[in-house]
Specification:
The protein is an alpha+beta fold and 232 residues long. 18% of the residues lie in helices and 41% in strands. It has five helices and 14 strands. It has helices at residues 31-37, 47-50, 191-197, 202-211, 219-231, and strands spanning 3-9, 14-18, 38-42, 66-71, 76-80, 82-85, 90-96, 99-103, 108-113, 116-123, 128-137, 141-152, 167-178, 183-186. The strands form two sheets. A ten-stranded mixed beta sheet has the order 2-1-5-4-9-10-11-12-13-14. A four-stranded antiparallel beta sheet has the order 3-8-7-6.
């Protein structure tokens, strides 16, 4: 049975109810628990540096999301007010208007927010773990998307010498996860690249894509292509 965590935020306190010992907010059992699972922080911990930046480092503008987490010790919890900080590649729970609880990346194995699933995988190039969103799945592998947000400097008006505010820029890269050896390789969304990872069935896939006027650059079309692959 899945453990359920409900986060209810009031003006000056956060009270958490859970089935089991997994608690957040004022319910964290001890400093040790907090260190293992995550830490508290201001919603914008470096506010002075980012208070004039347009946009948000988070993926979802609304924090009222239906979410579920799978921990490394294979426990599942449903959590309210969860969001994904794309800039820091971390997940956070909104505790109050200006504070969040940030999960340690090594504690979370998989996260689902509003039916969008994010899996933690090792980047063999950097040697670091990153979160990837599952875009399309087949019996042989998955297409994953890695999102990142960086701050770009605002443009300076040469006449007034006034600089526009800095702003967040979203960058998205796609990868293919091979279930046979769990390897991940970057996969620019071009027809020839997608057909290559589909192997011996690529001829049928190519005909199917052409017949139904599908685009490998469209994520919904990719899902349809992978479903057809499994049906062959």
């Amino acid at each position: 049975m899945k453990k359920i965590v409900c986060l209810l935020v009031a003006i000056n306190f956060c009270q958490v109810y859970a089935q089991g010992n997994f608690l957040f907010g004022s319910g964290v059992n001890s400093p040790t628990d907090m260190d293992i699972r995550g830490r508290y922080a201001s919603k914008m911990s470096n506010a002075k540096a980012v208070d004039k930046v347009r946009g948000t480092p988070y993926m979802f503008e609304n924090w009222n999301n239906n979410s579920e987490i799978l921990t490394e010790d294979k426990k599942t919890y449903q959590i309210a007010d969860l969001n994904y900080n794309v800039s820091s590649d971390m997940f956070a729970v909104k505790i109050s208007t200006d504070s969040v609880f940030i999960f340690r990346p090594d504690y979370l194995k998989e996260v689902t927010i509003n039916n969008r699933t994010f899996k933690k995988k090792l980047d063999v190039v950097s040697g670091l773990f990153n979160y990837y969103e599952v875009i399309a799945t087949s019996e042989k592998g998955e297409i994953l998307k890695r999102s990142r947000k960086t701050i770009r400097t605002g443009i300076t008006n040469r006449l007034t010498m006034q600089r526009e505010p800095d702003y967040y820029v979203l960058k998205e890269d796609y990868y293919y996860l091979n279930f046979d050896d769990e390897s991940i390789q970057e996969l620019p969304l071009k027809k020839k690249n997608v057909l290559k990872v589909l192997g011996s069935k690529s001829v049928q896939i190519k005909e199917y894509v052409s017949e139904h006027k599908l685009s490998v650059k469209d994520e919904e079309d990719l899902q349809q292509i992978f479903k057809f692959y499994d049906s062959l």
